[in-house]
Amino acid sequence: MASLGSLSLEQASKYGMLIFLVIFNHDGSVYLESEDRVILRTILSNTFSMQDFYQRATLEYNGVLRYYYVYPKRSSSNMRSPRAWSTSSYMPSNICASISEETGGGVCGFNSLCRHDDQGPSCHCPNGYSFIDPNDVLKGCKQDFVSQSCDKTSQETDHFHFEAIRNTDWPNSDYDHFQEVSEDWCRQECLGDFFCAVAIFKTN
């Protein structure tokens, strides 16, 4: 195994310096193990009795180690848990905010919105956009309108408008950045730019 030096586990893995396995152990814990069987990090610690509960972990299609399930092995009036599968924990806790690469379309693909709630992440398209493939929403969204013309003699700005989407960002995809400007200024600047599709405005 290559020496990690001052690199974190994530950095070492990114640069191909580390090969590891995800182990779901018989005691219910989940941990990372190196190729020489050294435990690198405990991902999930079991807090439920193996004698009283069935347990399972699943790696979902979107990369989330989702649902560290627990299910009572027997029904008892002394047991508070219902006889049904329930989620103990999962990671990352918010996949929508965990993927922060400078290239690519994120969790849900290009032009999409990733929303996270108690049920996990879900993919959506902004108004005026639709899924490229409704059967595979991870491919992203396509626009359902004709783009603004690049002919400078006719900017057609009156044919387009902005729709505000609160608490939303497309990080690491900005191609211009301004400070100490107003929200209205950002709108007008984007309308006058043929290649601008979205303006992100933040306070503080």
UniProtKB/TrEMBL annotation:
InterPro entries: G-type_lectin_kinases/EP1-like. The keyword Signal applies. It comes from the Eukaryota. Keywords: Signal. This is EGF-like domain-containing protein. It comes from Prunus dulcis. The lineage of its organism: Eukaryota, Viridiplantae, Streptophyta, Embryophyta, Tracheophyta.
